Amino acid sequence: MSASTNTDLIQYLLRLGDSAMVQAQRLCQWCGRAPALEEELALMNVGLDLVGQARNWLEYAAELADDGRDADHLVFRRDERAYRNLLLVEQPNGDYAVTILKQFFYDAWHFAVLQGLCHSGDARVQGIAAKALKEVTYHLRRSGEWVERLGDGTEESRRRMLAALPQVWRFTVELVDADAIEQRLFQAGLIGNPEQVALDWQHQVEAIFERASLPVPQPASHFYLSGRQGVHSEHLGLLLAEMQFLPRAYPDATW
Amino acid sequence: MYAQLVETGVKRLKTLEEMSEQERAFQERIDAEIKIEAKNWMPDAYRQTLIRQISQHAHSEIVGMLPEGNWVTRAPSLKRKLQLMAKIQDEAGHGLYLYSAMETLGADRDTEIDKLHSGKAKYSSIFNYPTLSWADIGAVGWLVDGAAIVNQVVLQRTSYGPYSRAMIRICKEESFHQRQGYELLLTMMREGTQAQKDMVQDAINRLWWPSLMMFGPSDEHSPNSAQSMAWKIKRQSNDELRQRFIDQTVPQLELLGCTAPDPELKWNAERGHYDFGQIQWDEFYEVLKGNGPCNQERVATRRQAIEDGTWVREAAVAHARKKHNKNAA
């Protein structure tokens, strides 16, 4: 692997790991507050899968970077400007309509991305993706079913979904809009075709929204923030302050 | 123990002669160690006692997610975060098992949960104490789950089949949590800084006595025990179980290099047990009545969750009905 490809791949692994980690952190905030016991179980289950995936991606990123930091260091000691997660996953949980839409958009994207990564020229990436894909298949099925239930449930649930949609939709621009790093990694055969990811995502959203009788909005437009470049919304800093408190307060500690 | 002070509604045990034929057949079945199953005849007081006990147990699993959930967003490493999330997930699962076991007795889950939210039903007193540092999470795993296991291992032999089978499944997962909790503390004590060691001792100081209270009132003040023991819902007395817990926990405490906040705690060679100091029973009864440190917050959080989630559950029901009608058409 050339040095520049190596740098690109590290960036990309951070994106995958950080998104999974931040999404899981949001799910943790639901603990004890979910609308049903079965949902407590499901939210924690999905979160657990995602923390496991974050650890796998970030361990590999740390090995490639080889600068003395490990996965824990990457999670608990990086500031928000160094985080590379999607803007979508850092958004607050809101009500269950917001939470479900965020989860669904992320899962549909995640599923398409992982399918591509299962054919990566990098064996390690391929292996992690294959394991993650099994988990995300379940996540997507679950969140898709909830979109359907809430979109085509009661008047109240539909009203809430319609209110949540514009709040969440604008952040989907990052899911379908590949940048130069992704293009180069695709050319190098390390990740799947970003255009395919965008198409698969769009189809998945259209299919589920149709079943939920929800309108698919026009494609979201760029709005001057980029989680992938470390330019986040104001929510991430607070999320990290909570998540990183202990390792920051006790830097010499072993947990 | 996750169920404390369960009312049986029975003032005095009946002798076999005083029992009706049905009651006698039931008691003989109990005495012969044959499990009672959902469709068997049972005295109404037995049924009601079990509903109270199993629902209290289930509520404890659910309310018990909150003190740990308080730290799940702040767990200090990936490994610890994964462990805690898995544990909380298991607890939600235990709650589901137990509500199912309770429903075999004809009780309704939502009705019993309403009783929790209106303050009529109890849950374990331990979950009314706050988690103030990360070490509390280890101490909860070690002491609280440890106390629960001592109780639940015995309940695997409880006379009601569905409850007994739920306990067998739950104990397997619970033992795992307890070992993880202890390992968490051991890591802080052996590899940690002085600040971490202080954190561990402080957690033990605050949670030691509340853990001992989990076994319920002392035998002399446990008016419901005799009937529960005769029915073999309970298999051992509160004080016996508490003593067993202390005897097995003190060596673990010593291995940690920590102390208990009890100057009277010492080995009694004559008894072959540890002697220990007086439990603050006033505190126990106050906490159980609702005047503990976190009672209001715990119940309010659970009530809020179910209230806020009403529209979600209603949507799920409405959607299922639409789908059903579509398929039927």
Automatic annotation (TrEMBL), chain A:
Coiled coil: none annotated. GO terms for cellular component: cytosol. Pfam families: PaaA_PaaC (PF05138). SUPFAM superfamilies: Ferritin-like (SSF47240). Gene3D superfamilies: 1.20.1260.10. One of its GO terms (biological process) is phenylacetate catabolic process. PANTHER family: 1,2-PHENYLACETYL-COA EPOXIDASE, SUBUNIT C, PHENYLACETIC ACID DEGRADATION PROTEIN PAA. This is Putative ring-oxidation complex protein 3. It comes from Pseudomonas sp. Y2. The lineage of its organism: Bacteria, Pseudomonadati, Pseudomonadota, Gammaproteobacteria, Pseudomonadales.
Automatic annotation (TrEMBL), chain B:
It comes from the Bacteria. Transmembrane segments: none annotated. SUPFAM superfamilies: Ferritin-like. One of its GO terms (cellular component) is cytosol. GO terms for biological process: phenylacetate catabolic process. InterPro entries: Aromatic_CoA_ox/epox (IPR052703), Ferritin-like (IPR012347), Ferritin-like_SF (IPR009078), PaaA (IPR011881), PaaA_PaaC (IPR007814). One of its GO terms (molecular function) is phenylacetyl-CoA 1,2-epoxidase activity. This is Putative ring-oxydation complex protein 1. It comes from Pseudomonas sp. Y2. The gene is paaG2.
